[in-house]
Structure formats: C-alpha cells, structure tokens
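Cross-posted from the bioinformatics board.
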Amino acid sequence: MASHATVLRHHFENGEQQKEASSLGMWVFLLTELMFFGGMFMAYLAYRQAYPDSFAAASSKLNVTLGMCNTLVLIGSSLTMALAVRCAAAGSGKKLVVLFLILTLLLGGVFLGIKAKEYHDKWIHHEVPGANFHPEDWPKNVDMSHASLYFGLYFGMTGLHASHMVIGVGLLLFLIIRANQGAYTPEWHTPVEMVGLYWHFVDIVWIFLFPLLYLIDPNFGRQ
Amino acid sequence: MLTATRAPERPSSYLTDGYGLKSWLLTSDHKRIAILYLISITFFFFIGGIFAALIRLELATPAGDLLESDVYNKMFTMHGIVMIFFFLIPSIPATLGNFLIPEMIGAKDLAFPRINLLSWYIYVFGGIFVVYVLLTGGVDTGWTFYTPFSTSYSNTKVMAAAVGIFIAGFSSILTGLNFIVTIHRMRAPGLSWFRLPLFVWAHYATSMIQILGTPVVAVTILLVAMERGLHIGIFDPALGGDPVLFQHLFWFYSHPAVYIMILPSMGVISEIISTFTRRRPFGYTFIAFSSVAIAVFGFLVWGHHLFVSSQSVYAGMVFSILSYVVAIPSAIKVFNWTATMYKGSVELSTPMLYAIGFIGLFTIGGLTGLFLACLGMDVHLTDTYFVVAHFHYVMVGGAIMGYLAGLHFWWPKMTGRMYPVLWSKIAGVIIFLGFNLTFFPQFILGFLGMPRRYHVYPPEFQVYNVLSSAGATVLGLGYLIPFIYFMWSLKYGKPAGPNPWGATGLEWQIPSPPPTENFEVTPVVTVEAYEYHAQEVVEVG
C-alpha cells in the first residue's frame, strides 16, 4: 500500500511524528470539550444543590427505562467502535472495519431516535420550558420556576450531547465511505482512531448525564 | 557566530511564493496566516480606538453634551468587546506567535496548518457578526454581559454580539490547541524544553488558558442565549435563576483571559531584554515556570470580581489571598528582567525602549491590582475609575506595549525591511507619555469616587478628565505613527538582513523574510536559545 507515504504531510519529519501530533491534538481537543460540558454541569450541580426537592420532582418525570436503554445502546456502540479501531489497526480487512463502523452508526441512530421520542413525550406533557411549559398533575408543593429550570438544564445538557452525537454520526459516515475505498491500513488509520476517541468521549459524557439527570429519585411522590 | 548556510542567490521568500489573492486566502503557511491575522486585528484595533476616542471626547466635559446616555453605554461596550475579543486576545499569539513559534523551534510549520487557516476564517466570521452589530445599533450591556440585564432587559443586539464572541472563541481555542501540539511534537532534534526561547514557554502557558478557559465562556454564552431566546430561567431571578452564577462562570474564563493577553507580551519582553543586554535571561527557569504558574493560579482567582456580589466573606478571603499569590510569579518576571539588564551591555534600540516602558507600566498595573485584591479596599474602589486605570495599565500599558515591542523587534524578520529608527523611537516616547497622561489621572479619579460607565460626572472631576482626554489624543497620535512608518517601510525601508539585532534565536538564523519552508534542512540544536558568549551556536544544515 502506498497510502502511508502519500498521507505524510510535508511539514512532518515522519509518520510517527504525524501520528503523535494528531493523537495529542485530539486529546487536547477533548480537554476543551470537557471544559465546555463542565460549565453546564457546574450550573446544573449548583441549582440541584440549591433546589433539591424541585429537581427530584422534575427528574422523576423522566422515563428511566428509555434512559437506561440509551445507556446500554451507547455502551454497545463504544464496543463496536473499539472493535472497528482494533480491526483497522490489526489489518483484519476493510470488510470488518466497515461492518463495525456501520454497527456503531446504527446504534448512534437508535440513541438519537430514542432521544427524539423522549423529547416528543416532554412536548406532549407540556414540560418544555420557554416554549411549552404548563405541566399538569404535579404535586402542589413543587416550585414550578425551579422545575422549569431543571428542564431547561435537561434540554440544554442532553441537547448539547445529542448535537455531539449528530456530529459523530456525520464523522462515521465519512469513515465508512473512506474505509470502503480501502483508505485505512494498519500503518495509517489515524482518522479511525481519532473518531474513536471522540465517540468514546461523547459516550462518557452520557454516562455522567444519565445518573445526574434521571436517577435523582425516580420514585419521587409515588411512595 | 552565524553558521547558517545561505544559498548563493536570494532565496524566494514566503512573500514571493505566489502573488494572487487566492495564494493568500487558501494558504496553509503559518507566516501568511500570521499576516492575515495582523491585517484583521489592526482593522479591529482602529475600530475599537474610534470608540475610545468618542468616550474620551464625551468625558471632556461634565455634562452629557456629545453622546446620549444610551449611546454612551453602547460606546464603552463596543470598545470593550472589539478590543478584548477581536484585538487583544488574538494579538500576539495569532500574529507573532503564529509567525515565530515554528521558526523558534526549527519546524516547517505548525502541527495543523489547515486548522490554523480555519481559525482565521472562524475569527473573521465572528468579526462579521460584530461588524453587523456595529452597523445596526450596537449593544449596551458592557463587555461583561451581566445578567439579568443582558438576558431579560437590554433591547439591543445582545444575541448577535454574543454569537460573534462565541464563534471567535473557537478560533482562539484552535490556535491554542495548535501551539500546544506544535511545541510538544515539532521541536527540532536537540531542542529540549529548557533550551526553548521564553517566548515559546509564554505561549505554551497562554495556550493552556485558551483551551481550558474559552470553552467555559462559550457554554456561558450558550446559557445566556437559552435564557434570552427561549426564556429558560438560568440567570434571571424572576425566572428562578441566579445572576451570581453567571458572574462565576463568566469570570472563570474572563479573569484568566487577562493572562491570555499579558503572558505573550511577557514572552516578547524576555526575548527583547535578553537580546539588547547581550545576556542570557537571569533566572531562565524561574521565568519559564512563572508563566506556567501564572496560568495555573490565574484559574483560581476569579472570585475577586465578586467581592461585592453577595459572595460569602470566607470565599472572598480565599480569593483575595490567591489573587495576591498571582503577584509572586509576576514579580519574579519583573525582577529577573531588571536583573538581566543589571551590568548588561544595554542597547536602547526601539524594541528595548518599548520593553522598558512595558516593565514600568506593567509594574504599576500589577501593583494596583493588589489594591483591588484587598477586600476592604475593593469595596471602596469597585466599579470606579481606579479599576479602569488598573486594567488599562495591564492591557494597554502591558499587553499593547509588549505587542508593539514585538512588532518592532520582528518586523525586519517578517518583512525583510527596516523601519525608520528615529521615528520609531519618537513614537515610542509619545506612546509612553500619552498613555500615562491618559490613565494615571484615572487612578486619582477612581480614588476620589468617580464611578465607571457614566457619561456625566460632578464638575470637580473635570480637570482630571480633561488631562485624560488630552492624553488620549497624544496616545492616539502615537499609535498612528508606527502604522504609517510600518506601511512606508514595506516599500522604502532598507533591507534588514537575516539578523539585524545580532540575536541568537533560531528564527534569526534564516533569511528575512523567511522562505516558505523556513529551514532547508531541519536544524540540530546543541545549545539553548541565548548563547551570547559561546563560539559555536547552532548548526543549521
């Protein structure tokens, strides 16, 4: 395969240096992403600390089953992504790489589909702050402005996460096309590795979002 | 001392490597991107300067006779937004840093040349939003966008301005990311961390703040947009939110952002002081680590902006002490620069004049910061002209002096031409005097109790305001002179040669202006960047 030589950009000494640069660049980018989500997590934690009861009440309106499904789907997609990277590195043939990338893409699609269903349910129950917020059959003692704050942060955080998923799906599409053309070799498959890192990062964000948002007290008010 | 091999005929430089507009707008050469940035930030510098001129003109008399109060609010807001986000933050890193870091470390380019170009386009895209805001009525929240005014009450172009800043932030992140990876992975063989020029260390520390701080202000802007656009109460108490949270998130970025502006200047000053005293910088490792220390401690002091914003007294005490701690690495730098000059062969060249000016002005700016870090004192001085004077001493007296010092130092390298020496020294003196006349009276005004952000004031303050406005006129003139002779030098300046200052850094071992690939052969470095008394320095080729 000649692709190893052709993808070395002129300002690098060798492929090793180029690969290390890409990898470090991705980690630095993920650090930036961490701080980006971090600001919103901070806001969430501050308000959850300030209004624990309203947050618990609002949180109990989320569908834990769907949230749990999505968590499993994402963990599964991390596995298929890791397998795609592994196959690309081991030279197991482009068919396997493409297969695992497509599986990752499908699982990402399932996640977004379930997420859309959840958003739709919130809209039906009038629990979308700003645009459509007048929920019914809630306990009388819940402060509605604080519950609205919870849902504002819920949509902000999961929306930011979902937008990262959409970008990830786009990147996967690109990888699938390139992998199918045989662009990735055991010597050079940096894009697969980099998208892999990104995909795992987005998964990890969800691993924190799920308990923080869904599991405050799922049985609130039902005892 | 110079062992660089030079081709017999004049090598084609990065400036002659293609002439069309396309060769500039689609370039991936870090030097050309630096020039693109230089032109863009100069544009915004003069825009911001026009607002400053209008502010000082209004304040020449106690009555509000030139601008109405809401127009005045827009003037100081636009001045702040343009100067901070579109001039100061990109100033040294995106121009001098972009141009010089690959040359200083013996690389052909930054690690990600196309991302570098992308960062410029992102910057311009953000800039277009701000120009749109300027042309359609401005924004009046102050550059700090404090809630709930910015989210619920202001009826100016808050969203467009916020989007512009949000976008420009990503350009800053990408520059920082590129520098970190470049400094880690692209150094020439033999160029260990403690042989690096201090300019590179300063940029490394700056980049850390850019990649860790900027995303936080981005998400803060996102939350403001959610509240303003969708009426989700995050910061407005009427909607269940807390405005103090905004201040915490905003200053978590915006205080470290001050160090994004000043650290690169400190890097410039370290290079210049060393070159024009013909000495290795005194306490090299201390200066290097003090940059990193400033970046780290800079993240732990944001609460000193909230001393009067309902923050607990105990939090205030901790933030007060930590703010004092930042003074230590800053003082280490100042002491080491002066110690470098002590018994050195000091040459008062133009860059050196600016650098010495920087040391004086930064010292005043830094020490008055300690007044403001003191809890009791700050209650008296909060939101007065004392604060305005303090941060202008740091950002204009410090950051812009450093930027001009660097521009005068590396202009011959970047363009291959020398500017008129006498004029440049005259300009330096005019800027220094004009600056002090503008901002020193503001310390007194603030101490006497004149609040910032008002367009009318009691008549007894007029004398200081007239002094300040007169100084601003001198300062404005001072900034025009370099602009004119730099332009003049492009055509008429005499060729500078590869190393007009007799400096030892790697960037001086290649032709001026440098060829596109910087180094024909990757240099092998055997000594540190400041070998002023060694026989053999660097083997190039």
